[in-house]
């Protein structure tokens, strides 16, 4: 097969083959616009590393939403940007306002650094976080193909495109009516997925001069709970995993001055002073309550752990998580196109989506205290007397305790997201040789979060606990009294909690065509403009400071910014076999100023079976509204904070060495600078023998001024790098700490994308074997300027895991009305997190390496019935469990397994039926 023929078969990609495409697009010799360029040309001339996934592939793979689709792309990051893990990441990187959303993250650079387009145009960002496009808003049932540009594209598209571009191309000029349904059921139960779609169109654009099409898809996903999967088990001490919490459904008793346990206690014959105790632990019966176990002191050893936990029970709340939210989603798109003449047409397009997702977290964990007035009273009916075990126990004093408040129920949040976009556009040809397009669009995205259960007013909950009516030591099988349940119900808050809204109004246009000839051929150029008005607002519907352990408390009055951009591009045939692409774009942001970003790329084809290509460019990522203007919150750190710099100079001085109630601010930072990048690619495409092609693309990205959210503790621990965020009083003591969003140092990442394809026909059978893989050579990160860059590849991390190797491979065989697909998804292993950061003593059975994960899917498609297509598939054919990891849910959801790497659904049967009425 000649390379030109190969390029036609792999239309719009410029690489050796789509990793998971099962049917190559038919050759199209008309000029088309390729993702990553504004110049239309013959498809086979594309020179950028773009991967194409067809709708036929999506259907045969049993994919029902765009988040699943992104998992098949090796260049996409292995991070917490999906509904399973993205909304349950703890710490500074927690995203508490994107419930029910999923995002793309090419190269693992984060959702903000991946540009998501629909038919080559921008969409509005998610209304909650405002940081990126929610993939759930894409109408997958109307998608014709997806193009993934694996190269930076700020010179063409502006901000967000540092990691690359994902362009969803919808069906156009459709005529007919078809309905389809997909059912996907797991063998082990839970997580059932159902999808129903209808696609219709009237009019033939060429024959009638008009076409109107519309599509609507409705998806329903059932809840999947940790208890439904055997691998979701946070108590495996023989493997180094055990819960690190004493907030148990059967409360543990704490020490404190003026309380029953006093400031500490000793056991008979033991001189050690202990700080916490539980009746079930003293009786050796921790496991009598489901999910509870004796605290494994040796695994979680630190300065206070043995004295705090030796006589305490622990609770595997990781095994109580909801790992798959129940989701109901409706997406719709309609498009009407009118052909003015052979050179001009206008069209209007409307896109709408509505997603409802219910997130569940484990019940509130409360540590009572005398100061908060919620200790258990001496005269309470359930007062627990431990004097039989602890001689110093003083039953004349109240009890303070740590309790997982299961009678309040799971913390449940209802998330509703709606997105709409209207577009009016025209495109065509001027003077018979210049292609143009112009469009005016308006996007709106809104979110609403309601608290459904498990949350309540702090003062009312504390009063209920202090009454003694609620029993924190309900024995197994023992329920709370009706009086207690009525009291608990009276403390709860149910209703609207927070809401967000983004809008984007965009006017864009471009013109392209051949402008003059050189000896090697015609020079093509493009010029365009992009004018946008973007707004974002976020607010609370209730004062979250009054809600105990609320998901957040942030307000952002509507912020507005204007973006004005112009860009130009040229394709210059330097030699007969050498083409150079030059591009430059200047963006001017009303809030952060102007930036100019160039790019140069080349395509050299010395032989019909050999192609070289490469690119170099600069990029930028503008700070989001939330990063700039999220409400600044003033809070206090607890007692005992150490000013390391001041304490070293003033040893023993409590003003530096034991600070009480240190103030800090967190939230947005109006002084943020844009992230900037320099990146490049260098690749080769070859066909060493007939029907076999291979592509290798080396890429590298360097980013400066990375925008990160950092806690006051991190700022204090890195005082030598962040002195500007530690505000000192005239006497040298710390007045307060400025935390939240800051410009950090940067990162450096590089790797190789590999594409293989072998296809052909023998004895009436067609076959295609393809592979898309990414080898990550390095991902180095420096959190602050002056710190050395630290390698992250194959290391556990609480945000993204940068795996050394990922691939998706497939084999398709077809004959007549039958076709079969076998697909494999592989993720390499990595170094596990050591229990308690390595402070403890891992057991002899602990394996410091998380094993690789391999998942196989198979499907069979039959088209022999009139107007009917039937596909039956099995996902996770061998029912492979996620590999074991010793990380605990305090870092990211999933005790004993990791949703960023593996699929928790297990083996599943999918059935797709499509019927075309006409």
From TrEMBL:
Q: Which SUPFAM superfamilies match?
A: Porins
Any idea where the TonB-dependent receptor plug domain is? 47-165
Q: Which UniProt keywords apply?
A: Cell outer membrane, Membrane, Receptor, Signal, TonB box, Transmembrane, Transmembrane beta strand, Transport
Q: Where is the signal peptide?
A: 1-21
- Give the TonB-dependent receptor-like beta-barrel domain ranges: 384-877
Q: What's its membrane topology?
A: Multi-pass membrane protein
Cell compartments where the protein resides: Cell outer membrane
**From the record, what ranges are coiled-coil?**
none
Q: Which family does it belong to?
A: Belongs to the TonB-dependent receptor family.
Q: Which PANTHER family match?
A: PTHR47234, TONB-DEPENDENT RECEPTOR
Entry protein name: TonB-dependent receptor
The organism's lineage is: Bacteria, Pseudomonadati, Pseudomonadota, Betaproteobacteria, Burkholderiales
């Amino acid at each position: 097969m000649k390379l030109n023929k190969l390029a036609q078969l792999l239309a719009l990609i410029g690489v050796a083959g789509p990793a998971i495409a099962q049917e190559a697009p038919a050759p199209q010799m008309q000029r088309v616009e390729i993702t990553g360029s504004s110049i239309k040309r013959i498809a086979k001339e594309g020179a950028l590393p773009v991967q194409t996934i067809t709708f036929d592939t999506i259907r045969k793979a049993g994919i029902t939403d765009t988040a699943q689709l992104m998992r098949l792309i090796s260049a996409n990051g292995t991070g917490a940007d999906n509904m399973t893990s993205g909304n349950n990441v703890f710490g500074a990187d927690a995203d508490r306002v994107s419930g029910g959303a999923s995002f793309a993250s090419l190269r693992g650079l984060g959702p903000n650094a991946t540009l998501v387009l629909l038919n080559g145009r921008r969409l509005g960002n998610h209304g909650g976080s405002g940081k990126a496009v929610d993939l759930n808003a894409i109408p997958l049932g109307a998608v014709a193909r997806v193009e993934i540009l694996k190269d930076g594209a700020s010179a063409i598209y502006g901000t967000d495109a540092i990691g690359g571009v994902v362009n969803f191309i919808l069906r156009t000029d459709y005529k007919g009516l078809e309905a389809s349904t997909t059912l996907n059921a797991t063998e082990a139960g839970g997580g059932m997925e159902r999808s129903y779609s209808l696609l219709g169109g009237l009019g033939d654009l060429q024959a009638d001069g008009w076409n109107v099409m519309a599509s609507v898809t409705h998806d329903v996903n059932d809840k999947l709970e940790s208890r439904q999967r055997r691998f979701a088990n946070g108590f495996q001490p023989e493997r180094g995993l055990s819960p690190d919490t004493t907030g148990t459904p059967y409360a543990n008793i704490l020490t404190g001055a003026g309380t029953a346990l006093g400031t500490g206690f000793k056991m008979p014959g033991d001189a050690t002073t202990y700080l916490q105790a539980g009746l079930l632990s003293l009786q050796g019966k921790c496991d009598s309550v489901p999910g509870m176990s004796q605290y494994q002191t040796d695994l979680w050893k630190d300065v206070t752990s043995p004295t705090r936990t030796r006589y305490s029970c622990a609770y595997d709340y990781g095994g109580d998580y909801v790992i798959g939210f129940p989701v109901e989603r409706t997406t719709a798109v309609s498009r009407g196109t009118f052909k003015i003449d052979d050179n001009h047409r206008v069209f209007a397009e409307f896109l709408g989506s509505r997603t409802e997702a219910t997130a569940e977290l484990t019940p509130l964990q409360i540590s009572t205290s005398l100061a908060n007035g919620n200790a258990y009273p001496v005269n309470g009916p359930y007062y627990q007397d431990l004097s039989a075990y602890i001689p110093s126990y003083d039953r004349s004093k109240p009890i303070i305790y740590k309790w997982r408040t299961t009678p309040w129920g799971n913390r449940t949040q209802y998330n509703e997201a709606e997105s709409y976009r209207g577009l009016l556009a025209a495109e065509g040809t001027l003077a018979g040789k210049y292609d143009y397009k112009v469009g005016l669009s308006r996007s709106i995205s809104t979110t609403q979060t309601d608290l459904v259960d498990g949350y309540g007013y702090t003062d009312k909950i504390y009063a209920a606990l202090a009454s003694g009516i609620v029993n924190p030591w309900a024995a197994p099988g023992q329920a709370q009294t009706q009086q207690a349940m009525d009291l608990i119900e009276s403390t709860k808050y149910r209703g609207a909690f927070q809401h967000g809204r983004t809008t984007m109004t965009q006017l864009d246009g471009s013109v392209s065509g051949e402008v003059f000839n050189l000896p090697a051929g015609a020079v093509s150029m493009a010029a365009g403009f992009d004018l946008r008005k973007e707004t974002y607002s976020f607010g609370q519907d209730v004062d979250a400071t009054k809600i105990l352990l609320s998901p957040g408390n942030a307000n952002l009055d509507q912020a507005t910014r204007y973006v004005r951009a112009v860009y130009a591009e040229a394709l210059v045939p330097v030699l007969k076999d050498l083409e150079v692409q030059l591009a430059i774009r200047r963006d001017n942001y009303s809030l952060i100023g102007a930036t100019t970003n160039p790019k140069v790329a080349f395509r050299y084809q010395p032989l019909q079976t050999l192609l070289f290509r490469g690119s170099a460019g600069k990029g930028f990522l503008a700070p989001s509204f939330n990063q700039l203007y999220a409400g600044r919150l003033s809070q206090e750190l607890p007692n005992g904070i150490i000013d390391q710099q001041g304490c070293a100079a003033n040893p023993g001085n409590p003003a530096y060495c034991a600070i009480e109630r240190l103030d800090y601010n967190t939230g947005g930072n109006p002084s943020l600078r844009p992230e900037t990048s320099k990146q490049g690619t260098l690749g080769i495409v070859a066909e060493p023998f007939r029907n076999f092609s291979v592509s290798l693309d080396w890429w590298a990205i360097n980013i400066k001024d990375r925008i990160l959210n950092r806690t006051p503790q991190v700022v204090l621990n890195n005082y030598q790098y962040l002195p500007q965020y530690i505000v000192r009083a005239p006497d040298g003591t710390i007045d307060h700490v400025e935390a939240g969003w800051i410009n950090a140092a940067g990162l450096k990442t590089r790797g190789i994308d590999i594409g293989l394809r072998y296809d052909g026909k023998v004895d009436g059978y067609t076959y295609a074997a393809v592979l898309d893989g990414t080898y990550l050579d390095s991902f180095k990160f420096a959190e602050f300027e002056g710190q050395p860059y630290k390698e992250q590849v194959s290391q556990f991390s609480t945000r993204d895991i940068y795996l050394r190797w990922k691939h998706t491979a497939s084999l398709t065989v077809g004959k007549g009305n039958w076709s079969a697909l076998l697909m494999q998804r592989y993720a390499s292993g990595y170094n596990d997190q050591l229990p308690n950061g390595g402070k403890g003593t891992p057991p002899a059975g602990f394996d410091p390496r998380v094993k690789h994960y391999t998942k196989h899917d198979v499907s069979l498609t039959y088209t022999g019935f009139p107007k009917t297509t039937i596909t039956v598939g099995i996902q996770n054919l061998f029912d492979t469990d996620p590999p074991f990891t010793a990380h605990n849910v305090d870092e990211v959801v999933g005790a004993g397994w990791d949703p960023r790497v593996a699929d928790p659904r297990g083996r599943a049967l999918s059935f797709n039926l499509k019927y075309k009425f006409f």
